């Protein structure tokens, strides 16, 4: 049973991480700007990982004349993972008309294409641009489906979703398991429950510190600092880890079996406090984490179906790995009761 759980969990983790690291990011238009009011040259800035070739064209549309035209890009430049696109002078295709709507299509090297998500209003006199208020014809979007979402702040670090979050799920599952067996020990006095409770705490703390480390790496890339002081959830998670570290000190600082009952009571209180610090307080105060402090939840705008297909097996794998370690540890370190 132990070997089956361990091998199955390891398979889920390796599979999810393989897909999580190899699936490419979507192409995202990062900036639209009219760089010169004199020439009205249009510049687009795109974040395009591992892209070396592209064809960019624009569809122009004037509602008054109910006609459209196709404009090819005049210049394309690649710089690392960024694509810069320059469109010709709008006056060349607007003629005497001062208002035009543009929509851009980027044809990628694998022949798929990305449509700029909205029509843009361009005034050839002032160079201003606004969202249109009238219905306009749509261009069919042939954007790739087998990609991860590309967010301006997250970029490639969005893959940390398959490391950081599943480890926290595993930690909560283990600490909840420990909480349950601590109560069972206090009710029944059976030392088997105490053993399972204490081992689950040790492994849960390990997953908690690894989760903190991966969270710090993610915070550096996303928020610019390894430990943003204004994030309530990070601070609450750190306090919770120290609370559980105190559990270990308490368990071994008092001689005799009375320490087991005292530490079990402490364990019950610690789990309740930990849930308060990482789930309740961040929702009541400002927090940078998605779903907390008024921020929208991560799943609302980032977690696509493909990401869910990778994320949920990773969660099951890390939780299963934690309980497999628990069973192995208990077998190696504790003799069965007679």
Provide structural commentary:
The structure is a single chain. The chain has 338 residues and is an alpha+beta fold. 49% of the residues lie in helices and 17% in strands. The chain is built from 8 helices and 10 strands. The chain has helices at 2-22, 91-94, 164-188, 191-223, 232-253, 258-284, 298-301, 305-333; strands spanning 28-34, 42-47, 54-62, 67-72, 75-79, 82-87, 99-108, 113-115, 120-123, 129-130. A hairpin with a 5-residue loop joins strand 9 (120-123) and strand 10. The longest helix has 33 residues, at 191-223. The chain is elongated and about 85 Å long.
Q: Could you provide a short overview of the structure?
A:
The chain has 338 residues and is an alpha+beta fold. It folds into 2 domains: 2-18 and 153-333, no CATH class; 28-130, Sandwich (Immunoglobulin-like), CATH 2.60.40.
